[in-house]
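<discrete_fold_record>
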Amino acid sequence: MKRYTILLLSFILMGCSNDPNSFVEHLTGYWEIDEVTMADGSKRDYVYNETVDYLSVNDSLTGFRKKLKPSFDGTYTTSDDAEGLKVKIENDSLRIYYTTPYATWKETVLNATEDQLLIINEQKVKYLYKRFEPITVEKSSSE
């Protein structure tokens, strides 16, 4: 019985595995950190983020990532700093290679959908992002 259970779980997991090629179309956009899982398994939830990440990936699988600070009027404040990136599929995984004048590093995309992005870095820290939805505050008119 135990053998059948393991076999069944294996088929389920293999059936749920995602094609890393399908992740690419979901990368571009505004993302905010929802949860971080450290290498030791401890977790930290993010209820509020002061900044969001904007990822841009073009047809040649290159692009950039910027940190943006959203405002209540729907605009963003940012610096001119951006991390260049290149996306590659290696060993059946989607990798993002980042480059700045000061460092280079890579991250692996574990899952990417329209609403969530799960990335692990070289230190085995997992970042779960959710699609950022701006909060806009409308001015009320005095009558």
Q: What stands out?
A: The chain has a mean pLDDT of 85. The longest strand covers residues 29-37.
